[in-house]
Write a structure and sequence with these properties.
By secondary structure, the chain is mostly helical. It has nine helices and no strands. α1 packs parallel to α4, α3 (49-73) packs antiparallel against α5 and α3 (49-73) runs parallel beside α6 (112-137).
């Protein structure tokens, strides 16, 4: 019972931090509207389209990262010290994401440093999730009666993020288009994991 209550507090705290990070994304847009004065809505959208695009992209990224975290934690029955500290690393990456988002929106979106920092932050978040999944897979007591989770999809997601980070450093002119790798890593990981499970099932028969 104590472990379940502690886990509930951990999840609630994580959700609150994610909500704060998402809120921080919209604050620059609020400042834009306040400074616009009598400027028309169309002019605001045109003049600050970089801020709008950065907000939408980063909000979608944070939501995707939260969804992965939610799927990982929703079946747990408890937690341990390793899971606690790796979750802290994940939260730090989430709450830091508004910083590179601001750098991206303030520039042209293709600067090497800003792009590398943005993609690197996402890579750290996914690596933290991979470590958490490994911790959970190695700790049956945390899962209760739930089947041992596969780490394959998390490996693919984290590996894809690291590749996107490396490509962002090598080809900064392409900018954040490497985020498309992050988009396809989910379906790719699910497909590979399903194929692996099917193959393992046939072999066991």
């Amino acid at each position: 019972m104590e472990a379940e209550k502690g886990l509930e507090r951990l999840v609630n705290f994580s959700d609150a931090v994610v909500a704060i990070a998402a809120t921080l994304l919209v604050l620059p847009l609020v400042d834009v509207v306040e400074d616009a004065g009598d400027t028309g809505l169309r002019e605001i959208f045109v003049d600050h389209r970089g801020d709008l695009v950065a907000f939408v992209v980063s909000f979608a990224v944070i939501y995707r990262l939260w969804l992965l975290h939610h799927r990982l934690f929703r079946t747990l029955r408890g937690y341990n010290t390793a899971l606690l500290w790796t979750n802290l690393l994940w939260l730090m990456s989430i709450v830091f994401l508004p910083v590179p988002t601001k750098l991206i929106s303030s520039g042209d979106g293709f600067g090497r440093d800003a792009t590398a920092l943005y993609l690197g932050t996402i890579a750290i978040a996914l690596l933290a999730l991979l470590i958490q999944r490994c911790v959970i897979a190695a700790s049956p007591a945390l899962r209760g009666d739930v089947t041992d989770p596969s780490v394959l999809s998390s490996v693919i997601a984290a590996g894809t993020a690291v590749v996107a980070f490396a490509l962002g450093l090598a080809f900064p002119q392409i900018g954040l288009w490497f985020l498309m790798l992050f988009v396809v890593s989910g379906p790719l990981g699910a497909a590979v994991e399903n194929r692996w499970r099917s193959s393992a099932g046939r072999q066991s028969v």
